[in-house]
């Protein structure tokens, strides 16, 4: 994918006392509802999922830790852009341990261009841990995300459990999202 995609610090909402997060961004970062649903409501020109990659990889250390994966473990990693028409609004990275992709949860391995969020929020077994947020430079995202390198990008992530099995979803709001 290119880009350095550096590890960065994630913050719980209560840890943000010393950081300024603009109010319009906070509303999106901490919304517990489905991002897919909200994006579809905001987009008037055709919401779509642009799949950048879906491959077996070793997750980053911070991802393995939050998922409780052993060192050296691989997972299914899916990277997508969530777009409104020709404008990409969100870059999303999902890490799904192979142990999660057994039984009824096998469906999460074959999403294609279907939005993961729609499936997660339709799954009656889904539970979501607390959202944590970060900010980083556009240069820290993969090259395929195509965002200005000097921009500030806000992201959120949380562990979802489906059938009591974890997967990690990280979503980064691209500058074009807030220009609409």
Could you please describe the fold and organization of this structure?
The chain has 180 residues and is of the alpha+beta class. The chain has a single domain, classed as Chorismate lyase-like (Chorismate lyase, 3-Layer(aba) Sandwich). 16% of the residues lie in helices and 33% in strands. It contains four helices and seven strands; from the N terminus they run H-H-E-H-E-E-H-E-E-E-E. The chain has helices at 23-29, 35-42, 61-67, 116-122, and strands spanning 47-57, 75-84, 87-97, 127-128, 132-137, 152-162, 165-173. Strands 1, 2, 3, 4, 5, 6 and 7 form a seven-stranded antiparallel beta sheet that branches. Strand 2 (75-84) and strand 3 form a beta hairpin. The mean pLDDT is 91.
List keywords for this structure.
180 residues; alpha+beta; Chorismate lyase; 16% helix; 33% strand
In short:
The chain is of the alpha+beta class and 180 residues long. Helices cover 16% and strands 33% of the residues. A hairpin with a 2-residue loop joins β2 and β3 (87-97).
């Amino acid at each position: 994918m290119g880009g350095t995609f550096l590890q960065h610090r994630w913050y719980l909402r209560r840890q943000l006392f010393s950081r300024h997060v603009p109010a319009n961004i906070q509303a999106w970062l901490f919304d517990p509802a489905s991002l897919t649903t909200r994006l579809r409501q905001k987009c008037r020109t055709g919401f779509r999922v642009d799949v950048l990659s879906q491959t077996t990889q070793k997750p980053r250390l911070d991802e393995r830790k939050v998922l409780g994966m052993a060192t050296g473990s691989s997972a299914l990693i899916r990277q997508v852009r969530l777009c409104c028409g020709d404008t990409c609004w969100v870059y999303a990275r999902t890490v799904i341990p192979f142990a999660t992709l057994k039984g009824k949860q096998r469906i999460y391995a074959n999403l294609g261009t279907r939005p993961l969020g729609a499936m997660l929020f339709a799954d009656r077994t889904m539970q979501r841990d607390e959202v944590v947020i970060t900010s980083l430079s556009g240069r820290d995202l993969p090259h395929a995300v195509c965002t200005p390198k000097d921009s500030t990008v806000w992201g959120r992530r949380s562990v979802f459990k489906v059938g009591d099995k974890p997967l990690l979803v990280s979503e980064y709001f691209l500058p074009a999202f807030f220009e609409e």
